[in-house]
Write a structure and sequence with these properties.
Number of strands: 0
Order of helices and strands: HHHH
Distance between the termini: 45 Å
Largest sheet: none
Shape: elongated
Number of helices: 4
Length: about 100
């Protein structure tokens, strides 16, 4: 597996983690501060960049260093939102609360 592939899968895994953390911290649809869950997503994306840069960046040619930022960005966003929405949906399903 190439280093760029590892960055992609690292981001997908962290997106799942970010979605669960954003939901578990209470950033759900009935919370007026729910938009702060997006900050969790940005923070963990930045952490994946740091991990990729310092652990895998040495094996990537300098001409492709931009790929450390852009690889997996779309997948990260969609997976983060999917997991966050599913967490929100399941919490309302099992607790019976209604969103605003």
């Amino acid at each position: 597996m190439s280093p760029i592939d590892k960055v992609f899968w690292l981001r997908i895994g962290f997106a799942v983690l970010a979605g669960i953390v954003a939901g578990a911290l209470g950033f759900l649809s009935n919370n007026p501060q729910a938009f702060r869950g997006i900050g969790i997503g940005f923070l963990l994306y930045f952490i994946t960049y740091l991990i990729a840069r310092f652990s895998l960046g040495k094996r990537i040619p300098p001409s492709e260093s931009r790929k450390l930022v852009t690889t997996g960005m779309g997948g990260y966003v969609f997976m983060f939102l999917l997991v966050w929405i599913l967490y929100n949906t399941f919490m309302y399903q099992f607790t019976g609360e209604q969103g605003q």
